[in-house]
Give the backbone structure.
Amino acid sequence: MDWTDHGISPPSGRIPNDELRAVSLRPPASGAWRDGDDVGHRQFAWLGAFSPEHGGELPLIRLAYETWGTLNEDRSNAILVLHALTGDSHVEGLLGPGHPTAGWWPGIIGPGAPLDTDRYFVIAPNMLGGCQGSTGPASLDSRGNAYGSSFPVLTIRDQVRAQSLLADELGISTFAAVIGGSMGGMHALEWGIMFPERTRRLVVMSAPAASDAQTIAQNTLQIEAVRLDPNFNGGDYADEPAGFGPHRGLALARRLAMLNYRSGTELDDRFGRSWQSNLSPEQDDGRYAVESYLDFHGNRFTRRFDANSYITLLTAMSSHNVGRDRGGVDAALARVTASTMVIGISTDVLFPPETQHRIAAGVQNSYSGDRAVTIRSNFGHDGFLLEIHHVGDAIRSMLANG
């Protein structure tokens, strides 16, 4: 497991020396994957012109994606896996050339795994607006410059529509299952509403039917943290040298976000008031251990993400409301005809289990009735990523019986 990328320390409680060395170097202006970088396990689909809901025009979009397993003859065994805010197409696999982190959901995909590649063909795209190979603010426009501040506003529905174009390109008319957590869960739910005829099963994890005021407020604070960085330059920083991009603002936004990904007591249980060194933070130049923890993960994030993409994706998350122009949330949920498993995490403070219960009660064919499957975990929101055994068993059961 890539312990540090999920915000948890290795079993020893110490960050490996090579990780510390990596984040001590000057961060790039953008941590986005760029054309000319090692492609790793990515494949690419060019999907033509794209017009977002709220205006603007992308003359040619591309989605990067990865696959596992073999598509059967009638193309009926495909499963679509949709990543969370800071994820990408690298669901399973090692850190290496082209992939700055190891797969974000280890143990879920493979022979005999919950997404059994002896039976299923698994596809995971990097979402539109992302920064790991799909068209986003760091991509080049028709003049050969990074889009930067000119990149249009996207919604969750825009991103799902782009994913449907990828399915068309691959010749997949119906998915055996669409699975996503957090922001990916928003996408999965929209798949069930926008394309009910293309979705046989849904797994929606740790996601609400609509982003509430608290979520929007948290997203706004993170966006402002990025924009207030003096090196943000209105979003046009792509050509700046290493060390001169908006890495401080992006790191701060990441640190703010991480406080929502953990349960209310986890940080205190893990760190309490302990010091990072033998210097007292109350009297000398020392630091509390929790300060160093947040700093490390914020700084590490800037090596693999783009500040404009972060803003684009947070804005899309804030737009999430399945009831918009559909007569309200309940009317929209009633459109979902797929056999649906909704999963929540008991200690999730970002999207509490009550928001998942609402989805389970509103869809036509909830696997667990009007209450979501609730997994008990101390990890908070990130439990859907880290409780591999419990989440995997739930998905395996859904695919076997759904």
In short: Residues 77 and 160 are 20 Å apart (CA to CA). The two ends are 29 Å apart (CA to CA).
